[in-house]
Amino acid sequence: MKLNDNIQYLKGIGEKRAELFHKLGIFTVGDLLYHLPRGFEDRTNIRNICDLVDGETVCVRGILASGLRKFRARRGGWVVQTTLSDGTGVMRLTWFNATYIDKSLSDPEAEYMFYGKVSYRTMTAEMVNPIIEKLENEGEKAKKMGMIVPIYPATAGLNQRSIRDAVKRALDGLDDRFCEILPESVRSRNGLIGINDAIRRVHDPADYDEFYEARRRLVFEEFLKLQLGVSSVKSVKKSRRAVVIGDVKCIAEFARGLNFDLTNAQKRVINEISADLKSGVPMNRLVQGDVGSGKTIVAAAAMFAVARCGCQSAMMAPTEILAEQHYKTLKKYFDPWGIKVAFLSGGQSAKERAANTEVIESGAAAVVVGTHAVITDKVNFKNLALSITDEQHRFGVGQRSKLINKGMNVHTLVMTATPIPRTLSLVIYGDLDISIIDELPPGRKPVRTVALAEAQRARLYDFVLRELDRGRQAYFVCALVEDSETVEAKAASEYVKKLSAGVLRGRNVGLLHGRMKTAEKEDVMRRFAAGEIEALVATTVIEVGVDVPNATIMVIENAERFGLAQLHQLRGRVGRGADQAYCVMFGNAKSGVAKERMKVMCETNDGFKISEKDLELRGPGEFFGTRQHGLPEMKIGNFFTDMDILKETQTEAARIIKSDPFLSAPEHRLLLDSITETFAKAGDILN
Fold it and tell me: Domain spanning 45-146: which superfamily?
């Protein structure tokens, strides 16, 4: 059997079962062997009944001390019970809705082994729904017990036994070897076993030490390829030449013309950007800043310097609301200096878009702001020198590349208000230099956050009405019930009717959701910003970028349906002015994770602390869609639990890149081929 053989032709699988394996991303024998266990059952712990402890999971060996008793439970399901004796004591065995058990326990004279969790609901030990193995001969060694048993990611119709059997047949019948891509020098320096030993041991380890040794080797390889991939991109970018923006001192002149003072953090980041712009090497910088930290003015300072040098800048935002807001803000900054700002969006008329496209192509517009409309084929720049992507995680790598490719070796600035743990950002954005705005503008007060039960709703509404009477404004956010804007819009519309007919009767209540036309959205936001709308019911369309300083209350319904990062973003819509702001979360947090999210939100406003906790609770697979960054998906490694291995690979990658920046040495050839193939599948960041 070869690694590239179709999984369908592995003995015992066939065409129909192969379709189930396909759902797990398994198409070949090689894919199957890289489908690694997510955990193990330790069936090596064989205990006497007299020594059992409540709550532990163990194996017990003995003979049946009574016949099978089958009866109906109160709720109608079948219950099967018997007792087991091992000479040291007796324990009860119970199965629910498993009437077939009598076939497995048909021989009253045989010796059996059972694996399960022990409980003491009475004075007698009990196992519920234990795994069974019949020992055919006295003293026979168990086949299912006394070993470490892998637990694999599975899917409906494909149980653990089917996957284990397939893996065993593949390992037993394999007449092929995995290609060793790690040089001997790397394996020796880091104490790593070979790839073929690692694959076999990770599926069938003799003990936990052997499993962890095998897994460490596989995680190390995955992380190293990731680190080298992004490091290579960085090396290539540093070798290119870009437009030199020589007059960066003009930024100080721009800052003096503002009606507010920049924070020290903003000044530091502007200095870092300025050094990049005048270096002659294309800037590739990520600016991280918590909600309300002032990233837009930092971007404006860079645009100002580029415009003064006779070149163009473009800023792309993910939504029309946010793009329109940036346009108005930048126009206010640049109009006094005679710098023309153009706006492009999908909602514009053909006439408007044609006029804006013309001033962009002629170079008359030094600054361009827009949505995805900026990257359409009809938009051409005269001399684009700076590309800025706001809330960049909402764009795919291909979309960002299209904007960059509108010019030659363009300086690139990407911004995000979603704080990312430092170590994770070094991986996800390894090809970028990172700047952090870790200071809020003066006068901002932390948003007070509480989680309330349904019984406290009346008190909340009284408080909201008092705030509205003081001239303040409020947001009411509906959770996305299903992955459908239509369903979400309907829920928000019904919520508006409920509030308008009830607690907010006589108040001016607005509605904003993703199914509305652009002109409708803009009109609602204009009226809310002007204070004409007192309370705005919205979906998560207002999660990013909407800035209304007079809004002081954020009410989040069904908060348990949101992730931590999303809750933090929503909270960031209030507290934009000098008045005290409040975030109130209503939710039915039954799970431990949901309760922990609520607790974290109430304890801190620090986005970076929240991001660390978010990574811990959700795991790296969900924290950020790596495909949005053009990076491969991690199939084995976990950025949170495997942090030590991640740091080891960072050190090793730095050593390799220092001696061989383009991985051109013969010992790195196979490693380079594997990296290129892996990244190409993820989004072609290496192009």
Answer: Nucleic acid-binding proteins (2.40.50.140)
